[in-house]
Design goal:
- The structure is a single chain.
- This protein folds into two domains: 6-27 and 165-251, 3-Layer(aba) Sandwich (Glutaredoxin); 31-161.
- Helix 1 (28-95) runs antiparallel to helix 2 (97-161) and helix 2 packs antiparallel against helix 5 (239-251).
- It has a five-stranded mixed sheet.
- 67% of the residues lie in helices and 10% in strands.
- It is rod-shaped, with a radius of gyration of 37 Å.
- Strand 4 (225-230) and strand 5 (233-238) form a beta hairpin.
- The chain has 252 residues and is of the alpha+beta class.
- The longest helix has 68 residues, at 28-95.
- InterPro entries: T3SS_Stator/FliH.
- Keywords: Cell projection, Cilium, Flagellum, Protein transport, Transport.
- This is Flagellar biosynthesis/type III secretory pathway-like protein.
Length: 252
């Protein structure tokens, strides 16, 4: 059965003098999706901002409404005070100026004070309700915003790992924990072949590996993922694994 992997040994030694079989794997999807990825980043960012702006507008509109109530109440108080003066003046002329004026004025001003307090309570209620509405709205949209943020992270991470050396930052920490190991096998998407081959000699010396590093191209492996097999076990690294952990942390 023909294997889907291509074995590459950095030393160039192959049994029977055979040459390594290379897979000419061109990820056309990367090229085709470049503009689409950038557009998605913008779209997701715009959607998150839209949710945040809608939430902020709840508070903004409530403040405007409360301010309108306060201004109207102030104008009303000024007008009532004017009427109170006129009423007190008229009542003062009828009942004896000093006592009559004071009685009429105080009565109207007391009514005014009560009405103004009612208006202020209404303004406070509008603001308080808006804050509650804002909290409710943002809580309802929390999962949506988190999902959009996760989608954005996936797009950005995917874009980063489409670079040929993007996988190295995931492989090297595993090799750092493999000092003194014998043979190591690294499986990866052919996109990363050149960069990984460039690093194998360095890895063997830096991590004092006793045997060889065998490189296996797997055209069916997702971009951004790799498998490192050593005597002590197998480790799967990649963008998918990291994002799954991120998703668990966000939605647990």
């Amino acid at each position: 059965m023909q294997s889907s992997y291509n074995l590459i040994k950095k030393s160039g030694a192959h049994s029977g003098g055979s040459k390594p079989i290379e897979t000419n794997y061109v990820n056309e999807k990367i090229k085709e999706q470049k503009e689409h990825i950038e557009k998605n980043i913008i779209d997701i960012d715009a959607m998150v901002k839209k949710y945040e702006n809608l939430g902020a507008n709840i508070i903004k509109n409530a403040k405007a409404e409360a301010e309108k109530i306060t201004i109207a109440s102030t104008k009303k108080a000024i007008e009532i005070e004017r009427l109170a003066y006129e009423k007190g003046y008229e009542q003062g002329k009828q009942n004896g100026y000093e006592d009559g004026y004071k009685s009429g004025y105080d009565t109207v001003m007391q009514d005014t004070k009560e009405k103004v307090l009612e208006d202020l309570k209404l303004a406070e209620y509008v603001l308080s309700t808006a804050k509650d509405d804002y909290k409710t709205y943002m809580n309802e949209k929390k999962d949506a915003i988190l999902k959009l943020s996760l989608d954005m992270a996936k797009i950005i991470a995917g874009k980063e790992f489409q670079l040929e050396d993007g996988i190295l930052q995931l492989i090297e920490p595993i090799l750092e924990d493999s000092i003194g190991e014998e043979n190591i096998i690294i499986k990866f998407n052919p996109t990363y072949k050149e960069k990984i081959m460039e690093k194998t000699d360095y890895w063997k010396k830096a991590y004092r590996l006793k045997g060889e590093i065998f490189l296996l191209e797997d055209p069916f492996m997702e971009i951004g993922n790799a498998v490192i097999e050593k005597n002590t076990g197998k480790v799967v690294v990649g963008m998918d694994v990291a994002l799954e952990k991120l998703e668990e942390a966000l939605f647990k």
